[in-house]
Each structure stands twice: as structure tokens, then as C-alpha cells.
């Protein structure tokens, strides 16, 4: 009779746990030992409207340097980015000595070169350094710490973003990670399979400013929180009770 009771219990457990399919929890599981992938590393950062730029100037004129390096945008509420120049809705920043200068559409490197050229008419041997102060990405969905992250280094890839969000939960679909990107008022979306090494070659693997990463939950999570699954403990208890009752009856 003990064997019958055990069989009932094992069958019940298998029925309950059999609903959840197997999940591949390994990134780039198709990677072989053939060598490095031909991946794209980083990308040029394009300046857009509403960007906050840190612009510092080093030249042979200390007084002129202070005009830039002491800049404050008092209209900004975030103290962390008050020391930057805000790109207005027309794509311009207002700079000492130069005045309004359009930076929208330029890369960081291009803006540095062009501003240095214009400053050369006023100061000696200017060297311009520009950093984007409000480079941010959002990671949502099946991750441990969904949030919006401000990045100090403009180069961040999808794996680094997932790392900042505490990585995916066990329910995150590694083969279907959605990246939502907005550029020049146009929104595009692309799905990446992080089980495949080829995803590292996608232009969406290296993230851009204001990208949104969405990790979709797999079906097993829906099963776990379904009505049937919530009733699983009751079902198991009922089967166990029936097994005990059967054992008692057979003994008579």
C-alpha cells in the first residue's frame, strides 16, 4: 500500500511540474571555440535637442577657459547636470565668445572640432572636450531591478544594461529581447536573440541615448500565476488524501 501511495504522489508532482517547459538561461549558447565574433564596437553619439552637454575648453588663455568651465544652466532642476549647456528646440547651444551655435545632428567629435575652430579666432590653441550628461537608457520587464539609468560613458551595450538592471529573472526570454529606439522623431523596434552570438553584430546591441530595453516574460510565468497553478496545492493535498483513504480501505 505504501507503493500505491507513493505512485499517486509522484504522478501528481509530475503533472504539476510538467507544465513549465525548459528554458535556456545561458547567453550566446550557440557560441563555439572558433574565435572572436566580428562585432561592432560602440558607435558615434549624435547630439539631439534637449541634450545636456558638458563643454570644457583648455587654451593658452586662462580667462577664456573660465568663461566655459564656469558655466551654469540655472534653469535645470537636476543638480547633477546643471553645469552643462542645454541644446534648445532649434538645435543650438549658446556659447561664450561664439554665441548661438548649432550642434544638433553632429557627433560629439565633430562638435569638438568645429567649436575649437571657431574659438581659434578668439583664444590661442583651444582644445574642446564635450561629454553628454543626460545619456540615459531604460530597462524594463523581467529583470531584477527595472529602472532608468544615466550613463556617464556614452558607450553601453545590451549586456551592460542588463547587468545594471540586475540581469534577467529566470522568466526572462533571452531569445526575444526588444530594443525600442527613437531617433529624429522616428521610433524603431528590433528584437534580439541573446542565445545567439550573432546578436552582437546588430546595430541595436550597442545602445543609444533614450533606448528602452524590454525583457518579455516567457509562458511558464503565466502558467505559474494562472488560476490552475494557484489551485495546485489543493489538488496535491486532495490526491494525497485519496491515496491515504485507499490504503486504509485496502487494509480492511
Structure description:
Residues 33-40 and 72-82 have low confidence and may be disordered. Strands 7-6-12-9-10 form a 5-stranded mixed β-sheet. It has a 3-stranded antiparallel β-sheet with strand order 2-1-5. It has 7 helices and 12 strands. Helix 1 packs antiparallel against helix 7 (232-251). It has 3 domains: 2-19 and 229-251; 52-132, wza like fold; 136-219, Outer membrane lipoprotein wza fold like, CATH 3.10.560.10. The protein has 252 residues and is an alpha+beta fold. A hairpin with a 2-residue loop joins strand 9 and strand 10 (186-192). The chain starts with a helix and ends with a helix. It has helices at residues 2-17, 62-69, 108-119, 158-164, 219-224, 227-230, 232-251; strands at residues 52-58, 85-86, 92-95, 99-102, 127-132, 136-141, 147-150, 156-157, 172-183, 186-192, 206-207, 212-217. 21% of the residues are buried.
Amino acid at each position: 500500500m505504501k507503493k500505491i501511495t507513493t505512485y499517486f504522489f509522484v504522478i501528481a508532482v509530475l503533472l504539476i511540474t510538467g507544465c513549465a517547459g525548459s528554458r535556456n538561461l545561458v547567453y550566446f549558447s550557440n557560441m563555439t571555440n572558433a574565435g572572436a565574433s566580428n562585432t561592432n564596437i560602440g558607435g558615434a553619439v549624435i547630439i539631439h535637442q534637449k541634450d545636456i552637454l558638458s563643454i570644457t575648453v583648455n587654451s593658452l588663455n586662462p580667462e577664456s577657459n573660465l568663461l566655459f568651465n564656469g558655466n551654469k544652466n540655472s534653469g535645470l532642476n537636476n543638480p547633477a547636470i546643471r553645469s552643462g549647456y542645454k541644446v534648445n528646440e532649434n538645435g543650438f547651444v549658446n556659447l561664450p565668445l561664439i554665441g548661438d551655435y548649432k550642434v544638433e545632428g553632429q557627433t560629439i567629435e565633430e562638435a569638438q572640432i568645429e567649436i575649437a575652430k571657431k574659438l581659434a579666432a578668439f583664444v590661442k590653441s583651444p582644445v574642446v572636450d564635450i561629454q553628454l550628461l543626460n545619456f540615459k537608457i531604460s530597462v524594463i520587464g523581467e529583470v531584477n531591478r527595472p529602472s532608468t539609468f544615466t550613463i556617464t560613458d556614452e558607450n553601453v551595450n545590451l549586456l551592460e544594461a542588463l547587468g545594471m538592471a540586475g540581469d534577467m529573472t529566470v522568466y526572462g526570454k533571452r531569445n526575444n529581447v526588444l530594443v525600442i529606439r527613437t531617433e529624429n522623431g522616428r521610433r524603431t523596434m528590433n528584437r534580439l536573440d541573446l542565445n545567439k552570438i550573432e546578436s552582437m553584430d546588430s546595430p541595436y546591441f550597442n545602445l543609444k541615448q533614450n533606448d528602452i530595453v524590454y525583457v518579455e516574460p516567457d509562458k511558464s510565468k503565466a502558467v505559474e500565476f494562472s488560476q490552475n497553478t494557484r489551485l495546485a496545492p489543493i489538488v496535491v493535498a486532495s490526491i494525497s488524501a485519496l491515496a491515504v483513504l485507499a490504503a486504509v480501505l485496502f487494509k480492511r
